[in-house]
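Write out structure tokens for ABC transporter.
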Amino acid sequence: MPWPHWIRHRSRQQGLVGLPARPAPTPAPAPGATPALEAPLLQVDGVSIDYRTHERVVRATHRVSFDVHAGDRFVLLGASGCGKSTLLKAVAGFIAPSEGEIRLQGRAVTQPGPDRVVVFQEFDQLPPWKTVRENVAFPLLASRTCGRAEAAERAALYLEKVGLSRFADVHPHQLSGGMKQRVAIARALAMQPQVLLMDEPFAALDALTRRRMQEELLGLWDEFRFTLIFVTHSIEEALVVGNRIAILSPHPGRLRAEINSHAFGLHSLGGSALQATARRIHGLLFEGQDTPSAEPAATPVPGSVEADAAALARGPRPAAGHSALPFRISV
């Protein structure tokens, strides 16, 4: 389903945002009729991905299946090396599955396209010779999505939405890491893709900037209700950003469980319910692994699954009867 709520233009008389006309209301079903279920926007069906070398074949993901509906904030969560970024690249069309199929609106994904835009983790994803404004407008022009006038309008609009209008004419080297990521997000949103793909976009930011970026992303989603697939290895970030979470097992990545996380958000930080859920998720992530040895463990990377687990271990245990969650365990 295309994005019907994206802002298309500004009123030339008043400088106000123009909204598209509302679609006609869907007629109510006949009495006694079974309401039709909305088809998923994106389907990942039994996808395995292999990396081939001269010596062997390494399997990154094994028969992963899930559906993403329009407006979902779908999170792929797992420890480093579980194949979640590889899976995201396959959805983007950069990697072909070795087994299974990825379908967008029922059509097989075989190559990259403007209907799927990726925001990467690296800060150097912006061409350094282009200004901020030119960086946002460039993919619109390169893909011939729109003409120069509309590209300029979209660039101005989305830079305003991410709070960077005053920096439209500077170059990326003059921006902080968080500001560069805002430009990358504005560039992706200006393309109005059917699915926005984000590959650990805040992992390299400091803790305060990372929290601010999470707030801004959720604010943008509240306004535009875009469909998001978000990769992270932080349990807390998955619960805050996502409304559905797919938990991938360690290498090779298999879908271990899906969690409905609608109840959580930035307001849940520090709460006992979020901590209890995070402990359950950690158990699912590392289920079946050997108990660690008595040797002292290395200091975990901040924001990682391991760091979240260490922090949660110091918190209060969940009360009896409050550990059950709406899991859908995969076979």
